[in-house]
Amino acid sequence: xxxxxxxxxxxxxxxxxxxxxxxxxxxxxxxxxxxxxxxxxxxxxxxxxxxxxxxxxxxxxxxxxxxxxxxxxxxxxxxxxxxxxxxxxxxxxxxxxxxxxxxxxxxxxxxxxxxxxxxxxxxxxxxxxxxxxxxxxxxxxxxxxxxxxxxxxxxxxxxxxxxxxxxxxxxxxxxxxxxxxxxxxxxxxxxxxxxxxxxxxxxxxxxxxxxxxxxxxxxxxxxxxxxxxxxxxxxxxxxxxxxxxxxxxxxxxxxxxxxxxxxxxxxxxxxxxx
Amino acid sequence: xxxxxxxxxxxxxxxxxxxxxxxxxxxxxxxxxxxxxxxxxxxxxxxxxxxxxxxxxxxxxxxxxxxxxxxxxxxxxxxxxxxxxxxxxxxxxxxxxxxxxxxxxxxxxxxxxxxxxxxxxxxxxxxxxxxxxxxxxxxxxxxxxxxxxxxxxxxxxxxxxxxxxxxxxxxxxxxxxxxxxxxxxxxxxxxxxxxxxxxxxxxxxxxxxxxxxxxxxxxxxxxxxxxxxxxxxxxxxxxxxxxxxxxxxxxxxxxxxxxxxxxxxxx
Lengths: 274, 267
Prior knowledge:
The complex is a heterodimer.
Chain A: H1 5-32, H2 34-61, E1 64-65, E2 68-69, H3 70-104, H4 107-112, H5 117-123, H6 129-147, H7 154-179, H8 182-185, H9 189-202, H10 211-220, H11 223-226, H12 228-235, H13 242-267
Antiparallel strand pairs in A: 1-2
Helix pairs in contact in A: 2-3, 2-6, 3-6, 3-7, 3-9, 3-12, 7-12, 7-13
Chain B: H1 2-16, H2 19-46, H3 57-74, H4 79-88, H5 93-97, H6 102-131, H7 142-167, H8 177-190, H9 202-208, H10 218-225, H11 230-261
Helix pairs in contact in B: 1-6, 2-3, 2-6, 3-6, 3-10, 4-7, 7-10, 7-11
């Protein structure tokens, strides 16, 4: 039986309060290691600069890739960074810690909490640096738009944010699915690390790819959608609503599969001998 | 010498536990590589097959394939994190008491790790190269293979000594991972992981010549591809050997200074 509306509101309010407490915890944690917090931001900025350097060096050799010019791709990399960093802020640490929770049996404590386990596993910690780095990505996007002399309407920005949320959701669903492999193999850090390689695909222009690679990274692992579609929304580079539809459908598919995979994995959990 | 053989043996056995990790690492590693190769293909198509800065499409594809090969053979895996953890957790103390040299010990473990990684990654790498064989340039003769082997050995030593020295920072700071990742970012660009270094504007390319980074990847690949005329090759080997010696001395000096700071926390 579905919960009555009043109790649904109460449940949501309870989860909001729990999440607020988790935020306060995370802020306190970051404040305890301020210099480390700043150093991690420097690391992320370095890697971001690296990606921009790569594209700039490539555009020293060519004028365009498909019909993406240099500033188009800079915007794409900014969008990719924006989405990836939001994903990191909310989910990455939590997903990558899952294998440790399983290995040590600490997942027991989370299972005992009167909360949805997926909620608490996925959102335990917030990585505040991610928000700053997402801001850096947004700034690079703004600069690229300025270089392109493109005016962006509020509707486009709203659309961009909506498809970005779908992008973050896709990253999160796939990452949790991968991290859940640890219920089978226990040693899963390498798998989580492997996901980083997929980010590299997300920041490249879709038009560079054809054939199997394109199909696979659109319809199996939709990396060529997560940031290309948002970038196209901002650049008004959409000839048809079809890519947005693809993104929405693939996003829904990823959510469903990850929920299914998560439930199956959790059933395998036997705790660790203590 | 015998004790170090034991270390290698133990290292191989330890690394066997991680074979699934290694396999995932190798297979996932192909994704960005393949993406980059396709990206370059699209660029060459846009230019109707003309060379990019004296690189033909086949040479460019081979370049990225060789990046994988050199990486599989010489890159430090998580040796640096382990060394930092040894220092942080006080595990280093036991090496100060035993008649075993910590640097040699870690070098053996590094070697064992590479051997295991190679054993696991050889098949996927070979399959990958086979799939792209139309664009893969075979080595230009026995001499080239020998030169490549020498360059690889020096590269591995250089990679190791640099990572080792960096990890020794753990004597001074609590959390070294950010510093390791910063160095890694520089290496990634400056060693030629992202693109052949001669695509850079001459000023930056010249600047890199004064750093050890090109000798970690770009140099051995160029040796393989036979892109260096005789004198440049000899010069390259001398500079590479120089960097190996310099980083070795640096590693020893930093270790000696670090030990003075060392307080065996938790050990």
